[in-house]
Specification:
- This protein has 471 residues and is mostly beta strands.
- Helix content is 2%, strand content 61%.
- The protein is built from two helices and 25 strands.
- The strands form four sheets. A 16-stranded antiparallel sheet has the order 8-9-10-11-12-13-14-15-16-17-18-19-20-21-22-25.
- The longest helix has 5 residues, at 184-188.
- The two termini are 20 Å apart.
């Protein structure tokens, strides 16, 4: 519901409440976030080379009452946004201080329960915000979901309006059972109800822990921002989509496990400089972003009732990315301004696979220019033209792959980075008081849509794509 405040974003869910949602925007089934970059308090949510899907964005650990605001962007036109942002991006920020303390208890049908306690209190020269959440839900299923979540946030903010900093610690744990997809013929034959399950052991467990630091300093000459973070996350997801297609034994079925244990370390920083070109106001911004993922391990396994029976593929992955960017915003006249940016990203992939020929190292780099022209406002209406390049990274296992994990047949490696190119024309208006309206005619091209399927442990090839529409 938080992300659906972004106009045009649709969010749905399957395979249990603890799994990352499915996202839709601008003609994309974004899967679990492949081309929609999401950040919370400066920390990236998208996970590259994930056990279930590239760019996996699990937001179930977010306590929505702590959200202060959400800043969103559409298209690859912004120098600050890098990997996974071709369709758009959203940045959710937290309150430093809650307006009031919160104590709530919610009870509903299907054993839905949620308790929340949150408050901010003065401490030293700052404010300490704490929040504790616990939730449970069975859902309408014949096999109860037994979803349970515990969540905690501790945030210390200090400084004044021109020199503000915060340190935030977060912890989250969840588990659930999933009814998942069921065969129509099983329902039609009366074998199960439409809310029934074939394999009641499907489901998962997940956890996330993080520590982050944010600071923002405002000077007469501009603004300095710095964000640093460390994240640890785990996922064990058990699914069974084909039941006895691969294994005819009724005792075994086709359940598989996707599992990973990940540590993420990163920082981002930027400095803006207010200046003039003659008598013309101009702002230049320089920024850098660094991220390192250590995944020990990420794997796909066959399982029976959540007990591993064999390994399809297991890998240790080291993935490092660095992005640097520059942006210039110039107010040329009272009715015309431009925003021009240039971004450079470099990636290093290091994969050690249980299938030795699929191990390897690879480097890749990409440059992305961006331009926005804004005209107006006239009668509370401005018009814009945007054009720019973006990209998304592919799963590191597909980048170094030489044989398929199951059949061990020859396979072609995926490109490490896939370029996107977008353009749009439109307008924004407040000609009707208290109502903001925007209209855009947009187009987005992708060089390819190769997908690393966590369900098969392999790359599903697809060609280039072109999307366009009116929003």
């Amino acid at each position: 519901e938080v992300l659906e405040t972004v106009p045009g974003v649709i969010v749905t869910q399957h395979s249990g409440e603890g799994k990352a949602n499915q996202y839709f925007l601008r003609g994309f089934n974004l899967d679990h976030g492949t081309d929609f970059a999401t950040f919370v308090d400066g920390m990236p949510v998208n996970m590259p080379t994930h056990a279930h899907g590239q760019g996996y964005s699990d937001l179930n650990w977010l306590i929505p009452e702590l959200g202060d605001r959400i800043r969103y962007k559409k298209g690859p036109y912004y120098a600050q946004e890098g990997d996974f942002s071709s369709a758009g991006s959203a940045r959710i920020s937290f309150f430093d201080e809650l307006p009031k303390g919160i104590a709530s208890l919610t009870l509903g049908e299907h054993a839905y329960e949620r308790a929340l306690l949150a408050k901010s209190i003065p401490m030293g020269n700052g404010s300490l915000l704490y929040a504790l959440e616990a939730a449970h839900n069975n859902g309408p299923w014949d096999n109860p979901e037994r979803f349970h979540r515990t969540n905690g946030v501790l945030r210390y903010s200090f400084g004044d309006q021109s020199n503000r900093s915060s340190i935030t610690a977060m912890a989250y744990s969840a588990g659930w059972d999933s009814t998942d997809q069921v065969p129509l013929r099983a329902v039609d034959s009366g074998l199960i109800d439409r809310f029934g399950a074939i394999d009641p052991s499907d489901g998962g467990q997940t956890a996330r822990y993080s520590l982050s630091y944010n600071t923002e300093r405002t000077y007469d000459s501009g603004t300095f921002r710095l964000n640093a973070y460390a994240i640890e996350s785990r996922l064990d997801l058990f699914s069974d989509f084909t039941y006895n297609l691969d294994d005819p034994s009724p005792a075994n079925a086709d359940q598989f496990e996707q599992s990973e244990h990940r540590k993420v370390f990163g920082l981002s920083t930027s400095r803006s400089f207010n200046g003039k070109i003659g008598e013309i106001d101009s702002v230049n911004t320089l920024g850098a972003q660094l991220r390192h993922d250590r995944i020990d391990p990420v794997g796909l396994y066959s399982s029976v009732a959540r007990a591993r029976s064999s390994t399809t593929q297991e890998a240790r992955v080291r993935e490092t990315s660095i992005g640097i960017y520059g942006e210039n915003s110039t107010q040329w006249t009272s009715w015309f301004r431009s925003v021009a940016g240039l971004r450079y990203d470099r990636f290093n992939f290091d994969v050690t696979s249980s299938i030795p020929v699929n191990s390897g190292k690879k480097d890749a780099a990409i440059t992305s220019p961006k331009l926005a022209l804004i005209f107006g406002p006239w009668n509370n209406t401005e018009y814009f033209i945007n054009y720019g390049y973006g990209f998304h990274s592919n799963d590191a296992r597909g980048v170094t792959e030489t044989v398929t994990p199951k059949e061990l047949a020859p396979a072609e490696a995926s490109p490490a980075l896939v370029r996107s190119k977008g353009a749009e024309v439109g307008l924004r208006t407040e000609i009707i008081p208290h109502l903001q309206t925007s209209l855009a005619l947009w187009q987005l091209k992708l060089g390819s849509e190769l997908v690393f399927s966590g369900d098969a442990g392999d790359t599903e090839p697809s060609g280039a794509s072109k999307r366009y529409g009116i929003e």
